[in-house]
Amino acid sequence: MISDGIEDEEKWLAEGIAGLQHNAFYMHRALDSNNHRDSLKYSAQMLSELRTSRLSPHKYYELYMRAFDELRKLEMFFNEETKRGCSIIDLYELVQHAGNILPRLYLLCTVGSVYIKSKEAPAKDILKDLVEMCKGIQHPVRGLFLRSYLSQVSRDKLPDIGSEYEGDADTVMDAVEFVLQNFTEMNKLWVRMQHQGPVREKEKREKERSELRDLVGKNLHVLSQIEGVDLDMYKDTVLPRVLEQVVNCKDELAQYYLMDCIIQVFPDEYHLQTLETLLGACPQLQSTVDIKTVLSQLMDRLSNYAASSAEVLPEFLQVEAFTKLSNAIGKVIEAQVDMPAVGAITLYVSLLTFTLRVHPDRLDYVDQVLGACVKKLSGKARLEDGKATKQIVALLSAPLEKYNDIVTALELSNYPRVMDYLDNATNKVMAVVIIQSIMKNNTYISTSDKVEALFELIKGLIKDLDGSPVDELDEEDFKEEQNSVARLIHMLYNDDPEEMLKIICTVRKHILTGGPKRLPFTVPPLIFSALKLVRQLQGQDGDVVGEDVPATPKKIFQLLHQTIEALSSVPAPELALRLYLQCAEAANDCDLEPVAYEFFTQAFILYEEEIADSKAQVTAIHLIIGTLQRMNIFGVENRDTLTHKATGYSAKLLKKPDQCRAVYACSHLFWVDDQDGMKDGERVILCLKRALRIANAAQQMANVTRGSNGPVTLFVEILNKYLYFFEKGNPQIYSAAIQDLVELIKTEMQGDMATPDPSANAFFASSLRYIQFQKQKGGIMGEKYESIKV
After folding, report:
1. Higher-pLDDT residue of 593, 78
2. Would you state the pLDDT for residue 420?
3. Separation CA 447–CA 534 (nearest Å)
4. Which whole-number Å values give the CA distances from 374 to 324, 377, 499, in the listed order?
5. Which of 324, 389, 411, 587 could form a disulfide with 592 if both were Cys (CB 3.0 to 4.6 A apart)?
6. CB environment 135-147: b (16+ within 10 A), e (fewer)
7. CA–CA separation, 339 vs 761, rounded Å?
8. What whole-number distance in Å separates Cα of residue 295 and Cα of residue 329?
9. InterPro entries, alphabetically (predicted)?
């Protein structure tokens, strides 16, 4: 059925074009022979083809354009005739004898155009005559195209300022009146189109109407091009008349399109000065009109106008643009109770963009916009609509992009309230955006109040919202989010120790609510931030009583102890142990022996009770030995206790090679270069001999289990320890012992049971070269090495 209709329409169009071309041929013949009557007769018959009602607007337009081309030729002919003395008045009378009204009016418009050009009568009288007579065609499609033709032929003949048709009797007001009248009639015809034909074809008619909208809109474009339409005339006459027509037509399509046209074709300066009038029409439009898009476009244009030059900004203040726009949006949202959330938020995004461009210094205006958005969303659950969520993100991102400073955004009381309406996933995305802004602009947050406000904004990353489990999130995404929080903690800083301690307490309060999965990411940066403060306060001391005591290292260490203890809920014993050792080292630098000893005690307790994995034990014991070796604060008793513990645990590691390495590492606990009281050569040699025994045991176990000796790497490592302490002047290390060890390694390597190991061989060869180098170097060291034969 549809294809049949299309074929029929194509056939009717072809018939119309054929009839038009046929009569156009005879019209041209009459023109060539200078026969006025025949030329008008055939032109009228040609134009009769436009009387059809069978074509859709799209097809009718094709037919109209062919007729238009022929009429242009007819107009040129009449122009030439008037120059040769033909009476244009007689011609104007003659065309009115055409039998049918539609051809008659097309010919009248054509000859009327020539009549105006001849200046034999005032342009305003002819224009008024034509625009009135066109009322004779009330068929919507035929009437629209006829009036479009009238607009086309008259647009360059309007009595405008500077125009050749401007005279005493012809004023700009007459030109404006003509265009407004033609616009009004065209709009009525366009609106009436929706009532033509059966109801079932309503959608098709709306589509056809949409295709014809530019015919109506061109009138507004012509109005905007009239030089004489200054601000006063626009304000007093043009805008009120156009808006009256827009409001009264009560048609959704027409109202939306015409409001859009007004905003697009007239200058921004005019919009600014007539803002109240323009905005006053918005609540009067049909409730189904997409007014949010219209207002958004208006605000976008005004924003760009404000951004174009600083000189125009006082005009915005003068007309109180923000207040008017804000009130208008409020009225529109109030009037359109069914407006979806996305529509309202889009309006507030545009208003906020306008505010940030025009009044960047008025944070109260920015907060007012956010507050209005909160009011609109109040009573609603969190947004699930993707488009609405996207607009909220745009709303929240705008101040960040404008000010490049989160500190400014933190002053907006309604900012976190808007964020609360985001779903959990988007809330996190927005929180990451905020952190990225801080990192990108290198913004330091320097007061505990601002930190409190900031953590309220990013709470979606800090803790689970509404009990939503963190397991739902992709592991990589979760790590990236928590790493961004960790980076943020380092951007919270104040030179004043008191304020810095408050910041640390605020951060601690928030991150401890994060649950076991987040703590391993967020506790370490907090600990290191606090240790930075400790080193800043290094040397200060005093007993801590109450909460109001000034920031002291002791007070901070208490906080640190409690914070690291929280990791037990994870559990993360390896991480906690590392942090305890970091704190112990800081306490050592602050000369706080009891505090340092307590941190070491906690580290050992973790090692004993929590760390069961053999690899983790190896790492942990080496960390403990390394940290303990650097400590210089302990008295003899405390140090002996801790070193005894370290050596004891070293010898109890699961694998013999691990035992060996840990035990020889303990030798450094008894010989510290820069501490005279810490050079116990006897205990060093005991550690090294014990390590040798363990290495021998490892070799024997390898022999039993694999039928061959293991690699000699452990012996070479112990040899290097012997060389180290030998050079440091340990009186218990003799060259003979080194010689024996060298011989032992050679024997092991050359034995039948030896396992080939290129890396161990290279290591041993390098060690021998070192001994040879020291011998050749001479001096005191050379003499010491002289007796060792390699």
Report:
1. 593
2. 86
3. 18
4. 20, 5, 33
5. 587
6. eebebbbbbbbbb
7. 82
8. 8
9. ARM-type_fold, Vps35, Vps35_C
